[in-house]
């Protein structure tokens, strides 16, 4: 790639039809709106929904990758976990269905396939879901945490400092 390659790629994951599972997508959309008004040429934001394969290809060529998604660990709803991507990478199991290829699979497969053209610095923000039922609204605890994650990533973009 050329010298003007993307420095930071931010990817929101989740399902907009399943309440708190949408949190990653919602934060990504908010960041897209922010960047439309305050452009940063070395920052790209993508809504990858539930498409793990898209995560792998959008991450290729950037220096730093940030992923935002919901989690279900049994922790208190709205808890935010900021985890190095290396701790969450998982090679995909054999499957005939690309829907089974998640972002954690994308991290492991992308590193193996793209090698040095895949980001070495990966940060994953996981926000503990309260409700994964069909619906279009975030629970209040998850909404508050989404606001905090948005503000932290926005501050990183504004300062030009990686997290």
From TrEMBL:
One of its GO terms (molecular function) is enzyme activator activity. Pfam families: HycI. GO terms for biological process: protein processing. InterPro entries: Pept_HybD-like_dom_sf (IPR023430), Peptidase_A31 (IPR000671). Gene3D superfamilies: HybD-like. Keywords: Aspartyl protease, Hydrolase, Protease. Belongs to the peptidase A31 family. PANTHER family: HYDROGENASE 1 MATURATION PROTEASE, HYDROGENASE 2 MATURATION PROTEASE. This is Hydrogenase maturation protease. It comes from Fischerella thermalis CCMEE 5318.
């Amino acid at each position: 790639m050329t010298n003007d390659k993307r420095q930071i790629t931010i990817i929101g994951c989740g399902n907009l039809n399943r309440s708190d599972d949408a949190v990653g997508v919602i934060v990504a959309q908010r960041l897209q709106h922010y960047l439309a008004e305050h452009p940063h040429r070395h920052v790209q934001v993508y809504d990858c929904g539930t498409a793990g394969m898209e995560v792998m290809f959008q991450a290729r060529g950037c220096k730093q990758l940030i992923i935002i998604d919901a989690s279900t660990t049994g922790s208190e709803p709205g808890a935010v976990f900021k985890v190095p991507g290396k701790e969450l990478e998982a090679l995909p199991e054999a499957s005939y269905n690309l829907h089974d290829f998640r972002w954690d699979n994308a991290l492991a497969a992308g590193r193996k396939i793209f090698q040095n053209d895949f980001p070495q610095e990966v940060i994953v923000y996981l926000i503990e879901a309260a409700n994964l039922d069909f619906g279009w609204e975030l629970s209040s605890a998850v909404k508050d945490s989404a606001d905090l994650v948005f503000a932290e990533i926005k501050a990183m973009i504004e300062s030009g400092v990686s997290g």
